[in-house]
Design brief:
With 426 residues, the protein is α+β, with helices and mostly antiparallel strands. The chain has four domains: 4-39; 57-100; 118-290, Nucleotidyltransferase, domain 5; 303-382 and 395-426, no CATH class. Helix content is 34%, strand content 19%. The model is unreliable at 391-395 (pLDDT under 50).
């Protein structure tokens, strides 16, 4: 019997006065079938498909009794059924046992903290953005205060340690203080690893950072990220409200962060929170008073530090660009420091020798005023007396280079003799 959409289509054609023969021609159905549909009072009930017999059927009463006794281990029950003559597989057994298992609801206790007690921090990936002529992965740093649910949001193109610390510092300044503790997922920038007893071993640099600001870092238990649900909900809110429909590829990172700051103040802070049923900005004064004040001390130094070799032309290479250094340091390895203001400082023995603005794009050559003249002057001073440069071509100046110990040249036979080898034919 025809059912479903075809049945209703034939009934509609009959109501329109189309003949049985014409309907049979259009649909390809037999005219007797169409007459039955015309005479039917209503759509026929759906016929249930007969279930195929299962090899497990004779053993189901036994399985129900064992399940009532608390035995639900499929491997154990399979062995018992095998001894009774069962020849089926374990998959159908597990499917049958699934409905016999008692439902155990997964419950997570909501953990509320007093004002100023806790903040929760996490990263999230939010697509891609053009930054310094490159398409970079866009990340968002979110710090959510546990009591008021106010949050600090910042977008970055890196999740490294220095960026991680800088976002914390900006969040502390945004809130005007530091909470007593901060909860993290097991981020590598915070948690180095866990010991055999489950004890958290914190990243050394991050532990020093936490000590400097006086907060206690805490880590979620592995695979229990729901314990930091406040910041997780905050991240979902950012993605589902602020970023929804926003084309970040058409914005600079600075524009995106400015818009994010405006969104926090005009929308996020003044909406009624779904859990507290209050506006974060209304709960804020109590929490602000409980935060540990910064007391005006200097921000933690989050500068990038590394060492670079000065080449013969008096330049160092850093992040794909070249920066000039006083030529008397050629051949030496100097310390390079990139600060939060986009400045590059080079140090020799603890003394700053030069400072540059960081190049806006890779491949740039940044030269200090007077650097070429200093190179030429030093090269002339090193030229032997009486030597005159060729008038047709001016040679490139050569700066000092470290001297290396001379290596004695020996014949290959000496190495064979040392190794106890005898040449073939001797």
């Amino acid at each position: 019997m025809i059912q479903g959409e075809a049945w209703y289509m034939i009934r509609q054609l009959l109501r329109e006065g189309v003949s049985v023969s014409e309907i049979a021609r259009r649909t390809g159905c037999d005219r007797k079938t169409i007459r039955k549909i015309r005479e039917a009072a209503s759509h026929p009930a759906r016929q249930e498909r007969r279930k195929r017999a299962s090899k497990l059927d004779p053993y189901k009463p036994y399985l129900r009794r064992r399940a009532a006794a608390g035995v639900l281990n499929a491997v154990k029950l399979l062995g018992e059924l095998r001894r009774q003559g069962y020849v089926g597989g374990i998959t159908v057994l597990r499917e049958f046992l699934h409905d016999l298992r008692p439902a155990v609801p997964i419950v997570t206790e909501r953990f509320e903290t007093p004002p100023g007690q806790q903040a929760q921090v996490d990263w999230a990936v939010c697509g891609r953005i053009w930054h310094r002529d490159r398409l970079r992965t866009l990340s968002s740093f979110t710090m959510t205060l546990g009591y008021s649910r106010r949050q600090y949001l910042e977008f970055t193109v890196s999740q490294d340690m220095e960026t991680f610390q800088r976002c914390h510092i900006k969040g502390f300044h945004y809130f005007g203080g530091v909470p007593s503790e901060i909860l993290y997922d097991n981020l590598k920038t915070a948690v180095d690893r866990r010991g055999a007893d489950g004890q958290v071993l914190w990243n050394r640099r991050f532990r020093d950072f936490a000590d400097y600001y006086g907060f206690t870092p805490r880590a979620c238990q592995p695979y229990r990220a729901q314990t930091k649900g406040k910041v997780e909900n905050g991240i979902r809110y950012v993605k589902g409200n602020f970023l929804l429909g926003l084309d970040v590829t058409q914005m600079t990172l600075e524009e995106l962060n400015w818009e994010g700051l405006r969104w926090q103040r005009e929308i996020a802070d003044v909406r009624v929170h779904g859990t507290t049923h209050e506006r974060p900005i209304d709960r804020w004064p109590v929490e602000a008073a409980a935060l540990r004040p910064l007391n005006g001390h200097r921000d933690y130094d989050t500068s990038y530090l590394c060492h670079r070799l000065v080449n013969r032309e008096g330049y160092i290479s850093y992040r794909g660009s070249c920066y000039s250094v006083p030529p008397e340091h050629a051949g030496r390895t100097l310390m390079v420091k990139e600060d939060t203001e986009g400045r590059l400082r080079v140090y020799s023995g603890g003394r700053q020798v030069v400072e540059h603005l960081l190049a806006e794009k890779a491949g740039s050559v940044i030269t200090s005023p007077g650097h070429p003249e200093a190179v030429r002057t030093l090269a002339r001073a090193q030229r032997p007396k009486g030597a005159r440069p060729d008038r047709q071509s001016v040679p490139q100046p050569t700066l000092p280079w470290p001297s290396w110990p001379e290596v004695q040249v020996r014949p290959l036979a000496a190495y064979d003799e040392a190794l106890g080898l005898v040449a073939v034919g001797t």
